[in-house]
């Protein structure tokens, strides 16, 4: 067991729109109880008024300031945080650091709800936005790490809910009634812990 704990990567949790790192309090406690080092950050501003690529730079800066250069990392992004995390991985060098990556209810193909705002971060989460098209153009690079998408078919924030699907990695569908409950449902917590203990599948370039 000690060997297993020593081999575990630290986990960074990235929140969604209008949230802070505190939204992960229950999940972080659950994971820490099981031996992980868990970190959160507060993206600023968190209301969609900043473009997601700039928020992703905040993730990159946090990682650089918090972890040693040679330290591998596991990453989880909720909702908008999943897209921010993808930008960090795919465009800001995170692909060389992150070994396991989970998104929970993230609008990988956009969400119709984003049409309710003209804030630049929300516009980027609309279906077929230039940012999403950019990330989905070379999404295959995520095969270099362990990727898992967890989502609920009853999501009223990610519309359609199937926008959380990806063409690669592992998919877990949970019948959770509400978007925010995805972070506290006992099934989500168990799957996150299980996923972060999976062996790394290295893909040769």
In which range does the helix fraction lie? Answer: 25-40%
What's the pLDDT, averaged over the residues? Answer: 94
CATH homology superfamily:
Alpha/Beta hydrolase fold, catalytic domain
Number of helices: 7
In percent terms, what proportion of residues is strand?
5-15%
Strands of the largest sheet, in order across it? 2-1-3-4-5-6
Distance linking N and C termini: 33 Å
What does this structure look like?
With 205 residues, the protein is of the alpha/beta class. The chain has helices at 2-7, 25-33, 52-66, 80-91, 120-123, 130-137, 186-195; strands spanning 11-14, 38-40, 73-78, 98-104, 146-151, 170-173. It has seven helices and six strands; from the N terminus they run H-E-H-E-H-E-H-E-H-H-E-E-H. Helix 3 (52-66) crosses helix 4 (80-91). The model has no long low-confidence stretch (mean pLDDT 94).
Summarize the structure.
The protein has helices at 2-7, 25-33, 52-66, 80-91, 120-123, 130-137, 186-195, and strands spanning 11-14, 38-40, 73-78, 98-104, 146-151, 170-173. The protein is of the alpha/beta class. Helix 3 packs across helix 4.
Give the secondary structure arrangement, pairings included.
Blueprint: H1 2-7, E1 11-14, H2 25-33, E2 38-40, H3 52-66, E3 73-78, H4 80-91, E4 98-104, H5 120-123, H6 130-137, E5 146-151, E6 170-173, H7 186-195
Parallel strand pairs: 1-2, 1-3, 3-4, 4-5, 5-6
């Amino acid at each position: 067991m000690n060997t297993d704990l020593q081999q575990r990567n630290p986990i960074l949790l990235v929140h969604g729109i209008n949230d802070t790192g505190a939204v992960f309090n229950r999940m972080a406690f659950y994971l820490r109880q099981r031996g992980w080092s868990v970190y959160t950050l507060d993206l600023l501003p968190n209301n969609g008024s900043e473009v997601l690529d700039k928020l992703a730079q905040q993730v990159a800066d946090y990682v650089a300031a918090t972890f040693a250069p040679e330290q591998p990392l596991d990453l989880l992004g909720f909702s908008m945080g999943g897209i921010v995390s993808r930008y960090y991985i795919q465009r800001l060098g995170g692909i060389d650091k992150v070994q396991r990556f989970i998104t929970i209810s993230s609008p990988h193909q956009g969400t119709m709800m984003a049409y309710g705002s003209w804030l630049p971060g929300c516009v980027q989460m609309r279906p077929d936005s230039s940012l999403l098209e950019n990330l989905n153009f070379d999404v295959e690079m995520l095969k270099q790490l362990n990727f898992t998408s967890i989502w609920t078919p009853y999501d009223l924030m990610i519309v359609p809910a199937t926008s959380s699907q990806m063409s690669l990695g592992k998919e877990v569908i949970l019948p959770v009634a509400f978007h925010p409950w995805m972070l506290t449902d006992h099934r989500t917590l168990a799957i996150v812990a299980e996923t972060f203990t999976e062996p790394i599948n290295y893909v040769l370039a």
